[in-house]
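Moderator note: this is an archived Q&A kept for reference. The question asked for a predicted structure of one protein chain; the sequence and the answer are reproduced below.
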Amino acid sequence: MFQKLLIANRGEIALRILRACRELGIKTVAVHSTADQEAMHVRLADESVCIGPAPSSQSYLSVSNIIAAAELTDAQAIHPGFGFLSENADFAKVVTEHGMVFVGPSPEHIQVMGDKVAAKKAAIALGLKVVPGSEGEIENLDQARELGRRIGYPLLIKASAGGGGKGMRVCHDEVSLESQLSWASSEAKASFGHDGVYIEKFLSHPRHVEFQVVGDAFGHVVCMGERDCSLQRRHQKVWEEAPCIALSAQQRDQMQNMVIQAMTRFGYKSVGTLEFLYENGEFYFIEMNTRIQVEHPVTEMIFGVDLVKTQITIAQGFPLPFKQEELSFKGHAIECRINAENPKTFAPSPGTIQAYSAPGGPFVRVDSALFSGYRIPPYYDSLISKLIVYGSTRQECLARLDRALHEYAIDGVKTLIPLHLSLCQQPDIQKGDFHIRWLEDFLAEQQKNES
């Protein structure tokens, strides 16, 4: 058993990991930048270490500073959370080379799935269907033109490294192909230090459906159903729910079995998520996240399983505490990402929380590190809270979500709460009839009506 674990992250996920450790009897070390010295996870951890100034490049992304903090405090393991260094294979390797346990998969698995082209090749080898496109990075314009003629337009140009919508362009015809390739490559270079891009067929109205997997060191893999993450803005998820109401029980079982077989062959250990585009009854693998997901709570709510604690116990060398046949879900759960952003312009809204009151009542969960008087720093991601609700049916879940959103009070900064309240009232949302471009179309229509 770990005696002490260092949390290499900040915000609500750092607090989430801290809580899991406390329930497991593991002491925690919080690392923080100078901008986060008053953060909740720093206050609650058993120990804390400042690892640098506010810019993440000098603190939360500094491998040497984090390793030094772990050695200074005699931490036996490091949990990366999500974002920052969570999918950095070199970081995972350095952690193990310094005699500590990286709470996550092997560096090799992170490396393969962290490169979009390599991940696509691996998925094909593992028996998963992928979106038609290039087999590797595009080497020149002629190759891109030939591919466009073969699979048809529109095309989606994507950066080989990284994610979050960076280095991603939609090309509607051959005339604009050269300029769109140049834009995507330049943005990829600026964002990830690598200008490689690849091309896929652009699907018109797919859903974004992801499957949660967990594997241990003994070759056991389970799949805890799926999450529908289709409501996105600029490829950033805003609202997630489980299960996906567009799937039949037969489709779910088939995909779970396929995912389990693939990850068993892959030898995957830890929690992970396989993401697919779903259109016209077909699933197309797009990427795998080799870490805990932001939206993991909706899976926890319907399965009654603590994924973070499971992730930590697997890293300690324990086998999975359950078998696939012992897992079943019940009801419906929805998560709203509450960002410190203007709900109309989406401009960041850092500042001081003047008053804070979280919603309560049955089956309402808030994952947040906010408190009255907390100053949201302008240096990091704008996600400040996640509101998760559960209902025996999706209709009950939506009604409970609407009620909880009306109760949620965050004064001092602008948030996305008004947007989520509006979404709850939309007929398409109530019917579950949406796709990955629905939210952007909705926002564009709203802006048009207001102008």
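Archived answer notes: The chain has a mean pLDDT of 96.
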